[in-house]
Amino acid sequence: MRGFILSERFKALMWKELTDLVRDKKTIATSLLMPLIVLPLLGITSIALMGVQEVNIAIIDLDNNVSYNPVLNISISSKDLVSLLSNELKKYGYDVVVSHNESIAENGKYDLIIIIPKGFSRNASSTTLRAKITVLRRAGIQAAIRAESLVNSIIDFYSRKLSEIKVNAIVKMTGINATLESLLDPLSTRTVLIGIGGKVVGFEVEFRSYLARILVLALSVVIMPATSFIIDGIIGERERKTIEMLLSSPVNVSLIIYSKLIAASLLGLLTALADAFGLIAYITSISLVYSGAIFFLDPYILLVHAIVAFFTILVTVAIALPFITRTRGIRSASNIASIVAVAGTIMFFTGFIVDYTKLQAPLRTILYFIPYTHSILAIQNYVLGYSFEPLINIMVLALLSIGLILLSVKTLNTEKILLAPPT
Amino acid sequence: MVVDNISKRYGEKVAIRDVSFRVKKGEIFGLIGPNGAGKTTTLRIIATLIKPTRGRVYINGIDAIKNPIEARKYIGYLPEEAEVYPRLTGYEHFKFYSWLRLGYVDKNVIDLAINLSGLGERIYDRASEYSKGMKRRLLLAIALMTKPDVVILDEPTSGLDVYAAVNVRKTIRSFVKETGITVILSSHNMLEVEYLCDRIAFINKGRIVAIGTPKELLSKYNATNLEEAFINAVGGEEI
Questions:
Q1: Which residue of A44, A54, A159, A231 has the lowest C-beta tally within 10 Å?
Q2: How close is the nearest chain A Cα to the Cα of B215, in Å?
Q3: To 5 degrees, how large is the angle CA B203–CA B205–CA B211?
Q4: ipTM rounded to 2 decimals
């Protein structure tokens, strides 16, 4: 009977929390819209902004000459390279100016200057010399780095074309049997991607790995709304002066906290689902722009992500709870929650750049004690194709969440919740 | 209800010291004192919200310090600065507190609360739309609706206009007459106390300085009103 009454009282608390949550349109909207908007916005804006960055490129052809090699019977013109560079760069939307005057480099307008020196065509047509091209790039501009990378590929292509002409000429002259590859690339390597147990896997596994990193990073987006909600639930009740009547009811304070935790976790679950949908939108926008096709996500990845996000939220709230209940007001509680959230974000950022699955002892052992490590490992292990390990990670995360919550609730003090500590 | 020698310290600061009194069934007992005298601390201890540094409180024979949850079943409490849940309607407040206090939603309890609150059709509006007086009536109805053995009212008319305050006082008085519940209330409004209370305790600087019926106190301190009696009781010392 006692259990029944307690459970009925818990139902009453849950009813109040959920009714209040459902009617709190602003919180619901923020929690759902933030991940739904942030990730696609990240994809769309980065793509859009990348496209509109102006990079001014100057090609200075100081050679402006055609050179004939009578031995090989070939002619090389600097104009061919200039024309190739200019056309290809323009195709990618770059502003390209061609000049034969070196002083153009001094006006400071250009982010990338390609200098084809005097004697270029002579050297390029020779069998003993190398033709050199100088690329001046303005430091610290990402768009200029991308443009330089494109210039290098065009020059590589042209260089290979010259090699082909020269090799063909030599082969023709000497009458020997030779191919371009055997002379230029006598050694070759082939990389085959393998998964667990040495099974050959496709390139999509690499993409899944990239996705895992994004998923780990995305966890940082979902932890804040739930912590804000729990802060509002506890400190807000004190500040709105509703807590005294609530605490005078015949229920244990832990029951009140559990009801708030469950409501916060449900909000967290909604956020996690929104996060997953936001991720789909992000991946779709990226894959559409870069490959022109829609990449279909493995739904199980999203399921794993949602479960991991749920427990990550729970663990974050559990860590913040003992501090939240001992603060003077919403502002200091928010500061504490921010510290916990920032610590989580730092961990998730390391998860974006570090393969936690490859970390060695004793660091890995130490990290096992940090709940967020299991959030990261669960996603990374699943993406790598493991099935048992992510399950263990999720279970550890769940146990840590529940353990921390029980510990947090055990250390709760009604007086401390009711009365703000003195300043 | 017995309050036996309770004291409360917050670090170095003594909030109340050796406070003792008994309240009989069906009695309205008033705790009078200036701001910071220790009224709210005493009422919060009786309501089992805070633990005394020492002393005991018994409600219906239950040691409220040792068994606070059991004791709360017999307590209704209206804090001084209580507020409503803005996103819940008045009706939902009654439903919630009936469910929470009794373990089930009792329609009769809700009907009584609606009646006590006098909110009429406004009971289905969100509480955020209520005036201060309506909110206070709603909260008072919550404290009374389950007819608890002991009702603790901390400054029940605090911040209300004259009409709203009169309304609240009438509700308290008639409800106690009808049901025979015990009420302990705090106030610094001497008129209110005189109108409502059967017995009064003067409290100053955390100590009870006098206890008696209004008549007894007026006579004992040779005063024409309770304000005067209070000042005489504390010996004119700074309050």
A1: A54
A2: 33
A3: 20
A4: 0.92
From residue A119, how far is each of A84, A129, A154 by CA, in Å? 19, 11, 20
End-to-end CA, chain B:
28
Type of residue found at A209: S
Cβ neighbours of A409 (radius 10 Å) = 20
CB-CB under 8 Å, B82 with A241: yes
Task: Tell me how far apart the alpha carbons of residues A10 and A261 are, in angstroms, rounded to a whole number.
Answer: 12
Question: How far apart, in whole angstroms, are the C-alpha atoms of residue A80 and residue A68?
Answer: 14
Q: What whole-number distance in Å separates Cα of residue B239 and Cα of residue B230?
A: 10
Instruction: Please name every residue paired with A74 in a beta bridge, in sequence order, or none if there are none.
Output: A69
Using an 8 Å CB-CB cutoff, list chain B residues near A20: 85, 87-88
Residue among B11, B72, B85 whose CB faces A250 most closely? B72
Question: Looking at the domain B2-233, which fold is it?
Answer: Rossmann fold (3.40.50)
Q: Which residues does A58 contact at the CB level (< 8 Å), separation at least 6?
A: A96, A97, A98, A99, A104, A105, A110, A112, A113, A114
* Domain ranges, ordered by start, for chain B: 2-233
Of A245, A250, A415, the CB nearest to B82: A245
At residue A190, φ and ψ (nearest 5 deg) are: -135, 125
| Site from B40, B41, B77, B85 to mutate, A interface, most A CB atoms within 10 angstroms | B85
Q: Are the beta carbons of A212 and A383 closer than 8 angstroms?
A: yes
CA–CA separation, A134 and A110 (whole Å): 14
Of A12, A246, A418, the CB nearest to B99: A12
Question: CA-based angle A155:A160:A161, to the nearest 5?
Answer: 95
DSSP letters spanning A300-367: HHHHHHHHHHHHHHHHHHHHHHHHHTTSSSHHHHHHHHHHHHHHHHHHHHHHHHS-GGGPPTTHHHHH
If you search the block for the tokens 């309890």, which residue do you land on?
B109
Question: Which residues from B are below 8 Å from A249, CB to CB?
Answer: 72, 97, 100-101
- A403 within 8 A of A313, measured Cβ to Cβ: no
- Please, what is the angle between helix A25-52 and helix A253-291, to 10°? 20
Per-residue pLDDT for chain A (423 aa), expressed as one digit of tens each? 445 445 899 999 999 999 999 998 888 888 788 777 777 777 777 777 766 678 899 999 999 999 999 988 899 999 999 999 999 999 888 889 999 988 887 878 899 999 999 999 999 999 899 999 999 998 888 888 989 999 999 999 999 999 989 988 888 888 888 888 888 888 888 888 887 777 888 777 777 777 778 888 888 877 877 777 788 888 888 888 898 999 999 988 888 888 988 888 888 878 878 877 887 777 777 777 666 666 666 778 888 888 888 888 888 888 888 877 777 677 777 788 788 888 888 888 888 888 888 888 888 888 888 899 999 999 888 888 888 999 999 999 999 888 888 888 887 777 777 776 544
Q: Is B106 helix (H, G, I), strand (E, B) or coil?
A: coil
Comparing CA positions, the residue from A80, A83, A82, A56 lying closest to residue A67 is: A80
- DSSP type of residue A189: -
How many Å apart are CA A305 and CA A300, to the nearest integer?
Answer: 8
> Å from B220 to nearest chain A CA?
36
Residue B213 sits at the vertex; the CA angle it makes with B211 and B219, to the nearest 5 degrees, is 90
